[in-house]
Amino acid sequence: MAYKKIDTLEDKLKEKEVIEEKKPKEKPQPKEVEEPQEECCECECEHCKCEHEQEDNSLATEYLNMARVIQADFDNFRKRSAESVRQAKIDGMISAIEVILPALDVFKKAKQMIKDANSLKGVEMVEDEIKNSLKSLGVQKIKSVGEQFNPNYHHALTVIEDKTKPDNEILEEYQAGYILNDKVIKYSQVIVNKLKEDK
Fold first, then answer.
1. CATH number for the domain running over 138-199
2. CB pairs under 8 A, 24+ apart, for 92-98?
3. What is the DSSP-derived secondary structure letter of residue 145?
4. pLDDT tens digits, residue range 98-155?
5. CA atoms of 153 and 188, how far apart (whole Å)
6. Every domain of the chain and the residues it spans
7. What residues contact residue 107 under an 8 Å CB cut-off, 6+ apart?
8. At residue 4, does pLDDT exceed 60?
9. pTM higher than 0.85 for the full model?
10. Are strands 188-193 and 154-160 parallel, antiparallel or unpaired?
């Protein structure tokens, strides 16, 4: 009678080791290297945002500076235009006034020739009306008789010597002078006292 060999635990372990040694060893698979994924727009947001914001800020600053320059140019243009209009208005007034002023000199001569009191009164009324109209425009008569001669306002027609009057005093006005806003429209034509120096 054949006896069956009973495998001990020890034998089973040895058998298992032998089988495992005979099995071909599996090569370890290299770990898959994760390719760097392109960062999506959302991932790049912080970096992109920064660059875009800088570009937007520089463009905004540039446009703001351009707007300020244009605004300054426009303000200067507006001021120059206003000044040109003001000057043109003054020049137009002066041209009109220069035409009217000789009439006042004629009134002065006419009054000397009129003997009738009523006629004289009528002429004086017209003369006063013209003077008031000129005054409302800012025209002022240059003071002359009794004043010191000033070449900025007076034109000396001649000089005479009067020892009873101070030197360089205006003795007589031949034609009246007028100014508008400190600008001479017409110089006063006057006769000036000039005392001779004692030697």
1. 2.30.22.10
2. 93/137, 93/180, 94/180, 94/183, 94/185, 97/134, 97/137, 97/139, 97/178, 97/180, 97/185, 98/185, 98/186
3. T
4. 888 888 888 888 888 888 888 889 888 988 898 898 888 889 999 999 899 999 999 9
5. 6
6. 59-137, 138-199
7. 123, 126, 127, 130
8. no
9. no
10. parallel
